[in-house]
Structure formats: structure tokens, C-alpha cells
């Protein structure tokens, strides 16, 4: 009989007394030794719920809290922060800000040292955790010299060191490359095996959902559903989809088939289950041919905007971040650059806009050698939206932000400026926000404002570093549609991303970077066929592609580019009709 | 040196009393010891200021060593905006002095051109601000207090410059001539600027400590 | 800050192993001595002692000393010239309107050695001491650990801020050409720059503060330390020797 470790009863929270509640009437419990997933769109209150569970609310952050929180049967409101910190460990959304010390080893020891643990035990625990998380080789490293994936693992290790009963992970895999994501997932499973209770918070679900004991769905501060994942998907899958929570492709396929009237009893989550479903419904046979679109969406003969040959770049100390990369960008294409953390993607992007000088190799930008360009002049032709858009904001309101860009492009007439500003805000759906401070916008709107400030200059190339950073899939979709419109106007769009699904759905062409070299240049479907490249670049094919591949092994012919589950189902069913 | 020290103490006390009786912006005094958040805010401001002041310091050392007290005076006021900001965010006894020491220690560890001597400025400048807000009972935090604190710290800091660099007020007229310049630069670059930044940070509503 | 090559490194030197607090006290001792001296020769003696300590038991390479100390020695030299010219006393030489006084000739080197000696001693402390150990020795000396930790935290924030500065600088560069070069415009730019860094820094810091609490920072008045530092009696040699030397020099000055 499992015991409840944490129990929430009718919990409501407001940041300030008069505000609307951020969380409303939430009740659920986390059973001991289970693995729970909390999912919800951006701004739905997930991080706030984490703050309540780990005691930051109400002990450090005031506000208006009603309801009960029971931690092992005792009210968390009456416990002190330091008692809660012994039984609940929390890895924050941005783990880099959690670090208290300078080196990896010290960081893991920090918590137990505060708890006055025995020196010998701490030393043993540190060793064990270094082994468990696989960051042993970096034990002496300075914490800020770690890669994104290592930072996540260190955050986890340093929390585990305190031997909590419940561990909360707030979006641990955002910004991680697919291979590191899988590693973190494996780590979570091994923790559950050791009897730990885990709560994983996420904006997007993937195949890993199949492992969960409980799925909690949060939207607009309300807990909509909770229960065993397959059950929720079967009952409420369509609703989840309409709320902008992106589900695994396998689930999308199951739901879509069900909507079309096929008898789908259990919604598949794992690739194997999806295949079994397709088999059971007799949707494919050996002669089936699935033909996707093949024509490239852009003009391959147009003169290139950017042409790089053998680009090398070093930040110093003889270590090269780029070791000879060729890159061509033509007008009207959407190019994705992918690769593991630290592969040199952002370095390359900075080179294209002139922030990193190209000293070795040749880089021709708009028909002129990059060395002859000045950064501010180049900025009129090529724009970059930063990984963290906050770094780009210079003024106090959204409107001023656009004005600044207009001014630096030589627009000074107040009327022309107002007109251009209104148009831009309108286009990006920011009209209602024009008087707000850029920093107070939601993550999605920040990203849009970042794009807006870059678009007013009418660039010929737009680079977006990690469009999914800090966004849920719904916002991403809006943004990607926008980028597609921009591309259709003949502007080249370059996106840097870890999200393979985004790449396969939207990109015309994909460049894979690994260890400072270009490993691949072609269309996404071809890429997913090349297992060795994927492995060496820490990438993984999308679930949809895995399904296609498995179908291929069964004799089904898949041709061309099948970017999304929508396209896949259409092909699948058209076949079905002609067979039928 | 004795007269100059006495003069500086008097200046600080007068400025403090002005703040006490002229600053109408009275708030409740903060209670309790330093929370972890207080400490961390102090640390991060000290780090930011440490970096900026180390850079600014090099200009100051050059001006001060090649032109004497008058050379340093114009820049003297640019070091303490961070002190004011810290005090306005953590309104508790001792924070000005502690911030001075920690900020100076950061500069020492960054390897600036005064070494451990920097602590002398940290202490003297922090102490001056501490006296001002002590005289205000830690409950007046308006522009006037900020400006007075800026002037006081800027001027009081020169005590240490005189000692460290040997500008003996007994024979160097420059030291006395620099007094008004120090005060004006302290009022503008430390007091007004620090106040301006503090209100601006609070206005965004993004930083809890500033509310 | 980008070019600050001054940092702790384990050089396996004798000074590496000296108890951090002893080294800190020693730096203060050197500073106090240099303040009390009134003759150039005493300053020179202590300066040479500091230099010798850096080179021999500190194992600091001369190149490192010169690279890090160049600015300081240069400033010290300027300071010396300035004292030559402004200090009162009998004129020894004059070049046009510039007069060098006998008192100035004596004071100049005193201040040169004061500045150079204090800074070089501070550098030795930084070169040979892990800040974490220094913090721990302060705690052992009775400082509450939450306060000692604040200094340490400031250091931990430095790289974070450096990265923030880099990104903000890059972002500003690509937001287009600055529309003006007036002082006002410069100020507006500076203020935006600092403001972005401040806001981001503070927000991250508040997150860090919460994280510290979640990790039981301040759980008890004490805490354990995995890495032990131990005080050895022979470390006191550094202090005693310096004390004797300085006392001797001061006495000699009085007698002369
Ligand atoms: N300190 C705060 N003061 C006021 N409102 C806040 C504060 N922090 C968050 N909010 C608001 O509370 C709501 C929930 O925020 P929360 O960060 O919990 O969402 P989330 O689901 O974690 O979002 P994300 O997916 O972007 O991480 C949002 O509307 C947010 O604007
Ligand atoms: N400013 C810098 N100074 C020194 N080295 C750097 C700097 N920026 C990046 N590097 C190094 O250059 C390499 C490439 O980094 P880059 O940021 O281009 O990777 P990335 O592919 O964008 O990674 P991610 O997916 O994590 O964003 C890494 O090894 C990184 O540590
Ligand atoms: Mg969140
Ligand atoms: Mg990057």
C-alpha cells in the first residue's frame, strides 16, 4: 500500500492579495516511490506549483495562500524552510543560478555540509553521485565552464546529495540536445528504481511519458486532469491537444485515427505501440507507397546571400570552436542548424553577423568579404535574435524598443515612425503590450519582440537562435508560422535548434554541426536516415521518422519529405481509400 | 591630517542631519537580521560594482597619481552609486559598511592597482553612508538622503586617499580645493545616480528585494 | 576583467600551504609597516622581502609578477615623480617652473614602495590562496559562515556577470549604430547597459538566494567542510619574521 508523500488539498495561491489566483483549488497527491509528470502550457503555473512544493512559497515568497499542503502527513506551512529542504529537493528551471560554489565537487558537497553530515560520508556520496550522473571527469571543473547538459546533471546531483525523499525537476531538458535529454531521462528512471519520488515538470510530452505513474495536467492555474497517462490520453487526449500541449507524434497519430472513426482502444505512446496500432487497423501492406513532397521550396540557382568556405574560429588558447565549415545560404530558404551542446552553432551565427571576425577561411556576405563589413552596417542586412532575447532590449517600453530600431535604421520622422511601429506591433500581435516594460512580457512575447526589433530593418537574412527557448509549443507554432511568412517574402531564415520535430516540420534544409565541423547538409528526411551522423552529433530522429523507418523495414516504401503527423496520416489514408 | 579628519567627520554629520530633517520620505524601519536574500543581493551588487569600479579605478589612479587630489576628485564620485543602490535595497543596519568591505574585497581579488589598500576606501566610504542612514534612523530613503550619502561618502573617502598617497592637507592646498569637487561629483554620480537606478529597478517590479 | 590573469593556482609552493588567515594577516602587517616607515631604505627592504617571498617560497614566475604588476609599478613611479615636485622643503634641482625638494626626494620613494609593496603582497595572497580556504579560515576565526560566504558568493557571480556583459555588448552592437556622440547620449547608453546587467544580475541572485535556502544554507550556526584546512605552528614564522624585520627597521629609523 503506497503512502502519500505529499498531499495538496484545495490549494489556491495569489502573488498578491488582490491579484487573480495563479493556482486555483489544486488537489492531488504524490505517492511514495512514483514517477509523476506535470505538464502545462507556458505560464500555466507549473513553476509556481514547484515553489509551493519545495517550500519557497510561503516561506520565502509571500503571497496569499489558502488550502492544505501535507508533507509526510505534517502541514508544510508549519514546518520551517530548513526542515522542508531536508525532504524535498528541487532543481530549478534555470539550474545555473542555483550554484553556490566554484567547482563541481564543492557544489555537490554544499548541501550535505550545511546539514552537518559526516565528512567521510559526504566524500563517499559525492563520489557516488559523480558516478551516477557521469560527470566524474569534470569534478574539478569550474561550474561555469560546463555545457548545458552537464549543468543540468550537476544541478540534479547537488540536490540528490541531500538525500531528499521527493525530487522536483523543473523543465530539466529544455535547451539540451536529444542525447543529453535521454541521459537525463535514464537518470530519472534509475532514481525511481531506488525508491525516490520524482516530479518532472515539462511543457512538452514525449515517449518518456509511457514510464510515468501519474500525469498531472495544469492549465490556467487549474489542475485539469490527473491519473495514469494512458487513461488520460484515451479520455482527454483531444482536449490536451487543443490546449496547446504538444503530445508525442505517436499519440497524435492515435488521436487523429480515432477522430477519423477508427476503433482505437488504447492511445499509443511508444513507437512500438503505434506500429502495432497501424498493423491492427490494417493501414499498410507490403505494396503501400507513401510519397511526400519532393520539390525544394526555394530557388537553388539564386545567387547566394552568404557563402563561407573553410571557416575556422578560435576563442583563443588554440582550441577551435569551428574547424573549417562550408556554408551557403540562399534567399527564401529556411535553414536549420542543429548539433549537440557546444558544437559551435552560436559561434557560427555570431560570425555571420560580424560579432566574431572571420580570420581564417573565406566568408562572403552579400557579395562582399566579411572582413570589409562593419557590424552596424551589416546589421541592416542580417539580423540575429539571441538565445535569450532579454539581452537585446535597450529601452523601457515595447514601443520605444521598436522606435530605437527604426531610428538606428535612419527613420527619424515621428509620423513615419509611428506608422511603421504600429504595423510591426500589429503584425506580431503585440499591439496590446506597447506600453509594457520588455522584461515583464511573457516568454513568448519577449521572443516576438526580439523578432520585431530585428524585422524593422528589413533584413535579407534572419537568424533565430533557439526559437523554442522559454516557449510552449503553441507559441512556437505561432512564431514558426511567422518565420515561414517571412521566408515566403524571400528572406532567408536560419534557425538554430535542438528540437528535431521543429526542424523536420519547418526546415527546407538542415546543417548538422559536430565538434566544429559540418557533418551533413541536406533535407531533414535524408538526415534521419543516417544513423552514424545522428549518433556522432548527439541527435535522435523524431518519433514519426522512427515509425516511417520501421514501416520501411516491413516493406512499405516511404519517399520524399513527410514532415508532420498530419501529412503522414493523409498519405496513409489516401492509400487506404485506393486499397479499399 | 588631524584637522582634515575632524573636518571630514563634521561634514558627514552635518550632511546626515540635513538628510534627517529635510528628507520627507519616511518609511518603516526594516526589522530582523540579514536574510539569505539580503546577503546574496549584496554579493551580486558587489560583484557588478567590483568589475565596473576596477575599470573606473584605473582611470582614477592615473588621474590621482599624476595630477594629485584635484585630478582624482572629478572621478571620486563615480564609485559609490552601487553603495547607495545596495543600501536602498537592503535597508538594514550595517549594510553600507559591509557592502563597502565586500565590494572592495572583490576589487582586491580582481587584482586592482591598490591591492589590499582598496579596503581603506571600502571602509571609509561605507562608513560615511552608514553614519548618514544611522542619523536617519534607517527610515528615510528619499532622493535627498541618497544625495547626502553620496556627498558624504565621496568626501570621506578622500581621507584614505590622503593617507595612502601622502596628500598631506597640511601643505597640499589641492586637498582643500578638491573638497567641493568631490562633493559635487559624489552628489551626482553616486547619490542621484544610485537613487535613479534604485527607483528604476523597483519600477520594473521584477526584483523582489527592490519592492 | 576579461584580462584578469591574476588568479589562484596550485603551484605546490610553500606559500600555498601556509594557513590562509596567516597570509591575510601578513599582508596587513606589510601594509602597516609600509605606512609607518618614513625612510626610503626601510620601504626598499620590505619591498625586497615581499619580492623574494613571491619568487622563492611562492614559486611565482618573474614574468607573472611583471605582467600583473606593471600597472602598479607604473602608477607608483608617477606617484614618486609627483611627490618630488609638490612636497615642500629646500629646492635641490629646478627645471624651469618645476622644483624638486629634498623632502620630496625622500617622500617619493617612500610612497613608491608603499604602493608597490602593498599591492604585491596582496597579489601574493591571491596567487597562493584558494578563496574557499580563505573563507573557511575566517569562519574558523569566529566569523559567522553566512557572512563569510557573502564574499565568496561575490566571486561566484563574477563569471556570470562577465558573460552577461559580453552578451549585452554583442546585442547592442547588432542593434545598429548609436545615433549620437554627445555626452548625454553616452550616459543614456551606459545607463541602459548597466541597467540590463543589474536587472538580470539581481534576478539571478534572488534565484540563487532561494536555491541556497532550498539547500539548507543557514540550517545550523555551524557547518562541516569536506576539505579541511589546518593551522600549523610553523606558518607563524612568516608573521614573526616580518614583525621582527619591521620593528628593527622602525627602531633604526628612530635612532638615525
Ligand atoms: N513573482 C511573480 N509575481 C507575479 N506574478 C508572477 C510571478 N511569477 C510568476 N508570475 C505569474 O504567474 C503565472 C504562472 O507562472 P509560472 O512561472 O508558474 O508558469 P510556468 O507554467 O512555470 O511557465 P513556464 O512554462 O514559462 O515556465 C504567470 O502568469 C506569471 O506571469
Ligand atoms: N565567449 C567564449 N569564449 C570562449 N569559448 C567559448 C565562448 N563561447 C563559446 N565558447 C566555446 O566554443 C564552443 C562552441 O560554443 P557554441 O556556443 O557555439 O555552441 P552551441 O553549438 O551554440 O551550443 P548550445 O547548443 O549549447 O547553444 C564551446 O566549446 C564553447 O565552450
Ligand atoms: Mg516554469
Ligand atoms: Mg548556442
Architecture overview:
The complex is a heterotrimer of chains A (580), B (211) and C (256). Chain A contains 21 helices and 22 strands. With 580 residues, chain A is an alpha/beta fold. The longest helix of chain A has 16 residues, at 178-193. In chain A, 51% of the residues are buried. With 211 residues, chain B is mainly alpha-helical. Chain B contains eight helices and no strands. Chain B has helices spanning 2-22, 36-67, 69-76, 81-89, 95-110, 118-135, 143-165, 173-204. The relative contact order of chain B is 0.19. Chain C contains nine helices and two strands, in the order H-H-H-H-E-E-H-H-H-H-H. In chain C, a hairpin with a 2-residue loop joins strand 1 and strand 2. In chain C, helix 3 (40-55) packs parallel to helix 5, helix 4 (62-86) runs antiparallel to helix 5 (102-128) and helix 6 (131-140) packs antiparallel against helix 7. Chain C starts with 13 loop residues before the first helix and ends with a helix. In chain C, 44% of the residues are buried. At the B-C interface, helix 2, helix 5, helix 7 and helix 8 of B face helix 2, helix 4, helix 5, helix 7 and helix 8 of C.
Secondary structure elements and pairings:
The complex is a heterotrimer of chains A (580), B (211) and C (256).
Chain A: E1 4-14, E2 23-31, E3 35-39, H1 46-53, H2 56-59, E4 64-71, E5 74-75, H3 81-87, E6 88-91, H4 104-114, H5 119-133, H6 148-160, E7 166-170, H7 178-193, E8 197-202, E9 214-219, E10 222-227, H8 229-242, H9 249-259, H10 271-280, E11 289-291, E12 306-314, E13 320-329, E14 334-339, H11 345-352, E15 360-365, E16 368-369, H12 375-378, E17 382-385, H13 398-408, H14 414-427, H15 443-455, E18 461-465, H16 473-488, E19 492-496, H17 500-506, E20 509-514, E21 517-522, H18 524-528, H19 531-536, H20 543-553, E22 557-559, H21 565-579
Parallel strand pairs in A: 3-8, 3-9, 6-7, 7-8, 11-22, 14-19, 14-20, 17-18, 18-19
Antiparallel strand pairs in A: 1-2, 1-4, 4-5, 9-10, 12-13, 12-15, 15-16, 20-21
Helix pairs in contact in A: 4-5, 4-6, 5-6, 9-10, 10-20, 13-14, 13-15
Chain B: H1 2-22, H2 36-67, H3 69-76, H4 81-89, H5 95-110, H6 118-135, H7 143-165, H8 173-204
Helix pairs in contact in B: 1-6, 1-7, 2-3, 2-4, 2-5, 3-8, 4-5, 4-8, 5-6, 6-7, 7-8
Chain C: H1 14-17, H2 20-36, H3 40-55, H4 62-86, E1 91-95, E2 98-101, H5 102-128, H6 131-140, H7 145-174, H8 183-214, H9 236-255
Antiparallel strand pairs in C: 1-2
Helix pairs in contact in C: 2-5, 2-9, 3-5, 4-5, 6-7, 7-8
The complex binds adenosine-5'-triphosphate (2 copies) and magnesium ion (2 copies).
